[in-house]
Amino acid sequence: MSREGVTPQSEDFSAWYNELVIKAQLVDRGPVRGTMVIRPYGYRVWELIQADLDGRIKDAGHENACFPMFIPESYLKREAQHVEGFSPELAVVTHAGGKELEEPLVVRPTSETVIGEYMAKWIDSHRDLPLLLNQWANVVRWEMRPRMFLRTTEFLWQEGHTAHADEEDAMRETLWALDAYEKVARDLAAMPVVPGEKTPGERFAGAVRTYTIEGMMRDGRALQAGTSHYLGTNFAKAFEIDYQDADGELVLAHTTSWGMSTRMIGGVIMTHGDDKGLVLPPRLAPYQVVIVPLGRKEQAETTAAKAHEVAAELKAAGVRVHVDDKRPQLSPGFKFNDWEMRGVPIRLELGMRDIDNGVVTLARRLPTEEGQGKEAIPFDEVAARVPGILEDFQAFLLRRAEEFRDSRTAPVDSWEAFTAQVAQGWALALHCGRTACEDEIKAETAATPRCIPAAGEPDSGVCVKCGEPSAYGKRVIFGKSY
Ligand SMILES: [Zn+2]
Description:
The protein is α+β, with helices and mostly antiparallel strands. Helix content is 37%, strand content 25%. The relative contact order is 0.11.
């Protein structure tokens, strides 16, 4: 068995990504263009994201439900902006059961419409509010330029859908979801995302306000990693989601929707990966530790037995661990490279000499402030020390990503500085707020407004592009994006 590594990230970022997702066994290409098969190694990463986010969603009082994937076409047409926004991406079923259907069915691209229909049915009085629903589902949006995890025709996500008595409560909900996404990205994926509001030109189809978390990838591009929308009464009007208030008056509800998808996995790959391959943050790593027993024949049996002993202790300490003892035909060097390519945070090597010395040899996926090269750890200290080393590694990745993002972000006040800055990272610029001006910027530089950062300092002046007075009262982050 021979395998070249992946094209180095520094040489060709795009080729690196496309090769890596396949070679690291995260995904395989699906039989239909733009679809992906998520392999067990990639699905485990999703499960870890899902478990954390689902806990947050339930703790905040939401309940999971599951709505049908087929939506009557007429539902989508009820909210004009919504259908206009999604039309080009829809997959529509026209035939089923051996005949043409009376009404075509849309395979859900998102579920505001079908859930709106049932919210209207289930909500009568103010006592039924807020209605806090979430579903874990697959959705379909036909992709012309597919890319594994980032843009696939079918993907997995959760979609929260909630109905509230008034704008204030719906906005509280919208920002709660944004905050939950920021925590998942930061605490679990070690992605230092920037939360903020989208400009009107970048809003979700049918939303009054759209909020986003934006991460910077290692090529300087932005990735929108989760969005939360305040829908006002747009969908409530279209689906008659109303209720009797305390005075018996019939009032429209205010709704929200919010989603985070398998796209996050692409974000993890591009935030932390390097020339050698994946670098997984320990909290999302299917295997946090891989033990490679060394030696041949009887020696291999001895080291493998000891490796399983160490693995059992680590497992008892709550560590996800794998022993690589089923591939005797492969050299140790090959295995080390393979696990590095697959992003395992910590590798433990175990040879006869280690056993004689009563130690395992520990190697981190990347040198950190806490440890540069390999180090020997006595057997009786492994279970006690490894969890702390994993936590340090997790914190190191977040710090490193923050430093990288900050080094590629700068305020700019001239068009010349703007174009130079978005060629390598993010520009903080004053903007007039006009969509036509955003379009010109995009046409000339491929950069778009990523968000109006929630934490941005008050600032005003003239638009970096057209010179008209700035909007928003603060600088906007511009960058190229995925
Ligand atoms: Zn402008």
